[in-house]
């Protein structure tokens, strides 16, 4: 036993070690990534681990492992579960023999996401259990129970932490690591694993028959519990429960929901002992809908009657406001304070020396009046450079581009996609665009790594998640195999070269692919690449502002002159752009 | 109301706010105090404004409600202003005197308040302004400015200096232990003078 101050995701990873996990797969996505990142860095691993190319691939791998009787963990962010929804829905029918825990991390407030969907709805949809922790220690403690529950009911278990669990920290009591000696062994049983209609109809019935016992078991296991203290009650789930605990005055009953499906009879027994009930939960009214089914004449306050929002994340202040609105007092009201107005925003921006900035600059220079579909990654920040017109989901830049190109929209269509995103779900779009004769340009922004989520390796990196060398795939060969005939690579720091190549692509019809290759500047720094810094020759500088408009955080403007600060990574692109040759390498003047 | 001592550490992605919060967390473990925290990860880290919440003695949620923080530590003067509403009335604000200019000032031509104006606004709190870059450089490395700041805030926190120093030693890279220990002492000496 050991107490440590850990990130939620680290605590979850250690809990997997305590559960004797045998097989780990996942695709990076904020806020889920650090679980696999922690597990892949462990010495003496007794488990197989991979970063898969996408979530569907990850889940199918993990499902197969669980069919072989070993304990498997599969991690992703909430929108990754959309990609993995196909195997998820039917895995509930086939079930598992080894424990299968699918961690799908939700992101209320969309801190780092394209939407605020609620994983609990998927669990409901698939009829599989879902565990919903309220804090870091609880997230840790739930994991071994999740594997055991999965094995007890032969069902995949969804584990749904949110950003405020994954990326919050706490003092965590850890247990002992268990080194599993299990080996996979598949027992052939076509009626279980071959989901032809005649089998699947029976499997569906069996899945439905598991539900009543499952609901009771979740209460027995203590995931769902209550304390009756008065005539009114608050029912809360997830991180919301921890905020309620901080605010709840004496004399109010409290029910905590940590697992779904909720046992309706048990719930009804609690609700009907009260004069009114308030529901505190993030995102979908998952708890509230079940409460309303059983509440009878007991008034229920929640999202459906406007007491709580459907969107955004909860906070102590937000929960206090909801409680007060519903007529519940809070232990100690928070002061009402306003932020200082008009403080200039400091949104995230592409790093100094980022390859994406120079690639976008070249694209905008050649394709001035074009449509710019883009994708999910650091390069979505190209929005600030006016080079991103739409994003929808992973891999969709190429498909959206071909869709637009086929409508007769007269402007050129040029889309951008990162290497990891291209390998995730971009390839099919390229294949489809070439096959169906779209006229468009695809720029693959190839920084050799999955950068935004914390620099995880992918098949383009040259190493596996565990650091084993693996030959990097050739993006050129993949694009050619998809049928593209114009496939050219360029270093985006060579703005002139990239501009020339883009002009060449613009002249041609069909699907043109340009691969802009340059290592992520953070990785370059970690790998010891030293390019030297640049500086402004204040005599030559006439203050035209060309370099400042490039938008690099290393370039400032003061006293009618540009100035390069210590963030400079030496990409030299601004030196190329300056019409007066006023940007020079330090010490080279 | 929670009886925790709430610390908000703010800055710009890449400045070392997470290490600073880990040091406080580790010091809590050393003293066997419960602790909760929350921080910014992912896309927002790329040069954006970041915040770490640490609730020393915290047993409930990880987020500090605005107006409730006992201590605000800011690695950047502008970020001190941005997050100052988190502090309670008599709260302590320890801030670096330097400011990284946000790119929005150039690209969107947003008006930037002057250093003196910011300091005047922040004076309503118990304010300690220090040139953390300079003090860290004097201690041996500009990278130790997060530890300088913790040293300056030390006297206000319900943690023993010895626990904080031990936490610093456990968490910073081995070869920088001496520099960081010096940085902490320098920060603490400055905090004492205020």
Descriptive tags:
heterodimer; A: 589 residues; alpha/beta; Rossmann fold; 4 domains; 7-stranded mixed sheet; 23 helices; 23 strands; globular; B: 194 residues; Pyruvate-ferredoxin Oxidoreductase, domain 3; 6 strands
Quick overview of this protein structure:
Chain A has 589 residues and is of the alpha/beta class. Chain A has 23 helices and 23 strands.
Structural write-up:
Chain A has 589 residues and is of the alpha/beta class. Helix content of chain A is 37%, strand content 18%. In chain A, strands 3-2-4-5-7-6-12 form a seven-stranded mixed beta sheet, sandwiched between helices. A five-stranded mixed beta sheet of chain A has the order 9-11-10-13-14, with helices on both faces. Chain B has a single domain (5-193), classed as Pyruvate-ferredoxin oxidoreductase, PFOR, domain III (Pyruvate-ferredoxin Oxidoreductase, domain 3, 3-Layer(aba) Sandwich), CATH 3.40.920. A six-stranded mixed beta sheet of chain B has the order 2-3-1-4-5-6, with helices on both faces. Chain B has helices at 17-30, 77-83, 104-107, 115-122, 132-139, 145-153, 161-171, 177-193, and strands spanning 5-12, 35-39, 49-56, 69-74, 87-96, 126-130. Chain B contains eight helices and six strands, in the order βαβββαβααβαααα. The relative contact order of chain B is 0.17. In chain B, β4, α2 (77-83) and β5 form a beta-alpha-beta unit. Chain B starts with a strand and ends with a helix. Chain B is an alpha/beta fold. The interface between A and B is large, with 60 and 58 residues. β8 of chain A pairs antiparallel with β2 of chain B, so a sheet runs across the interface.
The Cα radius of gyration of chain B reads: 16 Å
Q: Please work out how many helical segments of chain A DSSP would assign.
A: 23
Taking all residues together, what is the mean pLDDT of chain A?
96
CATH homologous superfamily grouping of chain B: Pyruvate-ferredoxin oxidoreductase, PFOR, domain III
Specify the structural class of chain A: alpha/beta
Shape by Cα distribution of chain B: globular
Tally of extended strands of chain B? 6
- Strand content of the residues of chain A, in percent? 15-25%
The CATH topology label of the largest domain in chain A is Rossmann fold
**Would you tell me the overall average pLDDT of chain B?**
92
CATH architecture label of the largest domain in chain A: 3-Layer(aba) Sandwich
Q: Summarize the biggest pleated sheet of chain B.
A: 6 strands, mixed
Assembly state of the chains shown:
heterodimer
Shape of chain A: globular
Q: For the record, give the distance between the C-alpha atoms at the N and C termini of chain A, rounded to a whole number.
A: 61 Å
Named CATH topology of chain B: Pyruvate-ferredoxin Oxidoreductase, domain 3
Instruction: Give the count of structural domains of chain A.
Output: 4
User: How many structural units, i.e. domains of chain B?
Assistant: 1
Q: In terms of structural class, how would the helical and strand content of chain B be classed?
A: alpha/beta
Number of strands of chain A: 23
Unreliable stretches of chain A, pLDDT < 50, 5 or more residues? none
């Amino acid at each position: 036993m050991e107490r440590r101050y850990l990130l939620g995701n680290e605590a979850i990873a250690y809990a997997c070690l305590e559960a004797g996990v045998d097989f780990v797969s996942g695709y990076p996505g904020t806020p889920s990534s650090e679980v696999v990142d922690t597990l892949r860095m462990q010495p003496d691993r007794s488990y197989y681990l991979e970063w898969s190319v996408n979530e569907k691939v990850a889940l199918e791998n993990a499902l197969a492992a669980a069919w072989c009787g070993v304990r498997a963990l599969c991690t992703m962010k909430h929108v990754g579960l959309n990609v993995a929804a196909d195997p998820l829905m039917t895995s509930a029918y086939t079930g598992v023999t080894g424990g299968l825990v699918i961690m799908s991390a939700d992101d209320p407030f969309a801190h780092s996401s394209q939407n605020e969907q609620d994983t609990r709805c998927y669990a409901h949809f698939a009829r599989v259990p879902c565990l919903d922790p309220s804090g870091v220690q609880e997230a840790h403690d739930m994991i071994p129970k999740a594997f055991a529950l999965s094995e007890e009911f032969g069902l995949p278990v969804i584990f749904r932490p949110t950003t405020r669990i994954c990326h919050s920290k706490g003092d965590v009591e850890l247990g002992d690591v268990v080194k599993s000696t299990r080996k996979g062994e598949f027992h052939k049983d076509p009626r279980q694993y071959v989901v032809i209609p005649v089998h699947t109809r029976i499997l569906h019935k069996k899945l439905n028959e598991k539900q009543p016992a499952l609901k009771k078991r979740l209460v027995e296991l203590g995931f769902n519990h209550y304390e009756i203290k008065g005539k009114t009650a608050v029912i809360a789930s997830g991180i919301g429960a921890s905020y309620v605990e901080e605010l709840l005055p004496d004399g109010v009953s409290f029910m905590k929901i940590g697992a779904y499906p909720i046992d309706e009879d048990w719930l009804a027994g609690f609700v009907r002992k009260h004069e009114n009930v308030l529901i505190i939960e993030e995102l979908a009214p998952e708890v509230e809908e079940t409460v309303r089914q059983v509440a009878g004449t007991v008034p229920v306050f929640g999202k459906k009657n406007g007491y709580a929002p459907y969107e955004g994340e909860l906070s102590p202040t937000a929960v206090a406001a909801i409680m007060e609105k519903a007529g519940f007092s809070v232990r100690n009201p928070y002061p009402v304070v306003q932020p200082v107005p008009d403080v200039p925003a400091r949104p995230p921006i592409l790093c100094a020396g980022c390859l994406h900035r120079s690639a976008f600059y070249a694209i905008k220079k050649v394709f001035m009046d074009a449509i710019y579909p883009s994708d999910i990654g650091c390069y979505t920040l190209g929005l600030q450079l006016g080079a991103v017109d739409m994003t929808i989901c992973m891999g969709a830049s190429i498909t959206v581009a071909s869709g637009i190109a086929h409508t007769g929209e007269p402007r050129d269509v040029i889309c951008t996609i990162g290497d990891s995103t291209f390998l995730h779900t971009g390839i099919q779009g390229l294949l489809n665009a070439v096959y169906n004769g779209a006229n468009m340009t695809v720029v693959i922004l190839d920084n050799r790594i999955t950068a935004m989520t914390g620099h995880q390796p992918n098949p383009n990196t040259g190493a596996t998640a565990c650091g084993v060398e693996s030959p990097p795939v050739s993006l050129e060969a993949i694009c050619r195999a998809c049928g593209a005939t114009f496939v050219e690579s360029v270093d985006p720091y060579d703005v002139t070269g990239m501009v020339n190549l883009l002009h060449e692509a613009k002249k041609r019809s069909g699907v043109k692919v340009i691969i802009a290759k340059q290592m992520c500047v953070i990785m370059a720094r970690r790998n010891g690449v030293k390019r030297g810094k640049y500086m402004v020759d204040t005599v030559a500088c006439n203050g035209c502002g060309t370099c400042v408009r490039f938008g690099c955080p290393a370039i400032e403007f003061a006293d009618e002159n540009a100035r390069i600060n210590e963030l400079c990574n030496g990409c030299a692109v601004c030196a190329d752009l300056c019409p007066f040759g006023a940007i020079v390498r330090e010490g080279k003047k | 109301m929670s009886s925790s001592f709430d610390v908000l550490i703010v800055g710009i992605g890449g400045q070392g706010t997470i290490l600073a919060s880990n040091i406080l967390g580790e010091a809590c473990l050393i003293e066997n105090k419960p602790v909760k925290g929350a921080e910014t990860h992912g896309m927002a880290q790329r040069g954006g404004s970041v915040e770490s919440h640490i609730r020393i003695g915290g047993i409930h949620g990880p987020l500090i409600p605005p107006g409730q923080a006992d201590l605000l530590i800011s690695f950047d003067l502008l970020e001190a202003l941005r997050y100052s509403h988190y502090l309670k009335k008599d709260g302590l604000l320890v801030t670096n005197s330097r400011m990284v200019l946000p790119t929005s000032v150039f690209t969107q031509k947003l008006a930037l308040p002057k250093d003196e104006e910011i300091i005047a606004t922040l004076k309503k709190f118990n304010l300690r302004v220090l040139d953390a870059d300079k003090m860290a450089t004097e201690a041996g490395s500009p990278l130790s400015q997060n530890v300088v700041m913790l040293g300056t805030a030390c006297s206000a926190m319900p943690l023993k200096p010895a626990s904080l120093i031990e936490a610093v030693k456990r968490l910073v890279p081995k070869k920088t232990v001496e520099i960081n220990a010096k940085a902490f002492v320098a920060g603490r000496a400055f905090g004492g003078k205020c």
